[in-house]
Amino acid sequence: MADSYVSLRDLRFLLKQVHRVEDVVAHDYYSHNDEETMDMMLDAAKQLADSYLFPHYESMDRNEPELVGDTISVHESVHPFIRAMADGGWIGAVAPMSVSGMQIPQMLGVCAGFIFSAANNGALGFTGLTTAATNLLVEFGSQEQKDTYLPKMFGGEWQGTMALTEPQAGSSLSDVEAKAIPQPDGTYKIEGQKIFISAGDYEGVENVIHLLLGRIEGAPAGTKGISLFIVPKFRDENGQLVHNDITTAGVYHKLGQKGTPATHLMYGDKGNCVGYLLGEENRGLSYMFKMMNEARLLVGLGGAAIASAAYHASLQYANERPQGRRLNNRNLSLPQTLIKNHPDIQRMLLLQQSVVEGSLSLVLECAKYADMATVSEGEEKERYEMLLDLLTPIAKSFPSEMGITSVSNGLQILGGAGYCKDFPLENLFRDIRIYPIYEGTTGIQAMDLLGRKVTMKAGKAVQLYMKEVQETIDAVESQGSFGKYAAILKEKLKKIQEVSMHLAGFAMKGDIERFLMDATLYLEFFGIVAIAWQWLKQGHVAQLELENSTHSTEERLYLEGKIRAMKYYFHYEVPKTLGLIERLMDDEVLTILPEPEKA
After folding, report:
1. Is 341 exposed, middle or buried (0-12, 13-18, 19+ CB in 10 A)?
2. Which pLDDT belongs to residue 124?
3. How far is Cα 179 from Cα 176, in angstroms, rounded to an integer?
4. Long-range contacts of 489-497 (CB under 8 A, 24+ apart)
5. How far, in Å, CA of 183 to CA of 179, rounded?
6. Mean of the per-residue pLDDT values for the chain?
7. Cα separations (Å) of 94 from 134, 296, 382?
8. How many separate helices (H) and strands (E) can be counted in the chain?
9. What DSSP character marks residue 235?
10. DSSP state for residue 132 in the 8-state scheme
11. Class of domain 287-584 as given by CATH
12. What is the distance between the alpha carbons of residues 311 and 318, in angstroms, rounded to a whole number?
């Protein structure tokens, strides 16, 4: 087992120097989060992860949950971890102080989540889902609902879930069939089933609070008729908690993420499942999309975090494993060299670093937009929200997809050892595979980016994004040798505009299928350029640090490593856009099947 999984030095570099969290905490809403407090919280997060998460990662995978009778067992470390998260205030960390949260910036929450997920990504599903559910309750719940559920959920006594998926309605939420029958007392009888509900039930938790998408009888068809309901496993009747007619029909046995049970749940088999409307009727999907957008950023963060654990494990192995000799000096009388000295190993380590630190930087960029939207009003607030909307599908998909590539390269560094359970790479490789599927597959993110975000408000979001990137380019252009990297990024921005206009032509003709045919390739292209932007930011800051300050040997090597990773990304990864651009501008249609002939 590797003894490292994350770099606090890099988190602080990104949080403070690259993304300047000081801009956020300068506002009154976040002003209680001074630098000393944030440093203490990062240290506390690392200590919690070291004690309650990292030591149990392998064991949780080996001893997955089982459904015995009507009870799902979970690993013995789960409840102490949840307790530690609750005691540390982490479950409600980003919630307002008015509801007993800590009101920390999203940026700081992202850094803590990165630490937790890198240490034991599966375990974080328990508390992460509760946090997501409480965020919806905070924003849309009545005061009575907040008073009823938030204290127990923040306290770790009650679990929260997101109950969307049904057997016939995976990503197609317009086909949700779960039924909500109005009752005279204002409640609803719930009937239906949900599948793949993470942490949907398990032994030892006092209650599970499902936020469930359902359709009120008589509601419009499609997404316009979907409402959101609070459906607890145990409901209150005259001060007593009674079973709410929810049955666990099964637990899925998965390729990875084995420590968190994914459940198949039946609601109202006996006609006695009660749900409580959250917010307004028929607005459930818009509410849930807020939760899903937050979750998509957390999925991207999780992909980067798993890739981080793999990177540190493979880096440690490369620094310890002797194998062969340098190609320019193959004297067999000499001892074998460490594998880190082989160029191909260096290439794979640089790929891993560029994916991990580039992805984390993009998620932090999005978190800063979310924080600034919180403390802004009017046009400024709209600006931050539009930038966040545009970048969310990229921040979800790039770390997920390239995280797989990164972990795979780490496994390759270990060779045959990486394929064995003696090292964590095989486990991490299995765990990360679900991330491009979580919260909407990569294809769905691609259609969201090209079909919605790029076109919304006549392309205003893209214009705002281009301005953001141009500001970075302007700051770097005069910086000696870095000017050529700024020029490369500027040219790729132009290509995004050209490709976007080319594809938009099909949309204007009403040929939506052709417009979105290669949306996934467009997403990949856009993602590579977005990460190049993040690397130019990091390299620029690192170079200025080297030029303007005196550093210890360790710090100098860290900053030089940043610049080397930036250069790797521009010389190895950015050129991959050439093939994507060629395909996206190609008019040959191969993937659209002809309409079936009518009889």
Report:
1. middle
2. 93
3. 9
4. 489/529, 489/532, 489/533, 489/536, 492/529, 492/532, 492/574, 492/577, 493/466, 493/469, 493/529, 495/525, 495/577, 495/581, 496/462, 496/525, 496/526, 496/529, 497/466
5. 13
6. 95
7. 10, 17, 21
8. 19, 12
9. E
10. H
11. mainly alpha
12. 10
Digit-coded pLDDT (tens) for 229-240: 999 999 999 889
Residue 165, number of CB atoms within 10 A of its CB:
18
Q: Which residue numbers are catalytic?
A: 439
Tokens 């979800």, located at residue:
396
CATH of span 159-283: 2.40.110.20
Domain spans of the chain?
A: 8-154, 159-283, 287-584
Q: Residue 167 and residue 265: Cα distance in Å, rounded? A: 11
Please report the pLDDT score of residue 406 as a whole number: 98
Q: Is the pLDDT of residue 428 over 80?
A: yes
372 Cα distance to chain centroid: 19
Confidence at residue 288, expressed as pLDDT on a 0 to 100 scale: 82
Flag whether pLDDT at 173 surpasses 80.
Answer: no
Question: 552 falls in which pLDDT band (50, 70, 90)?
Answer: very high
243 secondary structure, DSSP code: E
Angle, alpha carbons 42-62-205 (nearest 5°): 65
Per-residue pLDDT at 253 exceeds 70 = yes
CATH 1.10.540.10 fits 8-154, yes or no: yes
Q: Please say if the pLDDT value at position 74 is more than 80.
A: yes
Residue type, 549: S
Instruction: Specify the length of the chain in residues.
Output: 599
Dump the DSSP string for 137-168: HHHH--HHHHHHHHHHHHTTSEEEEEE--BTT
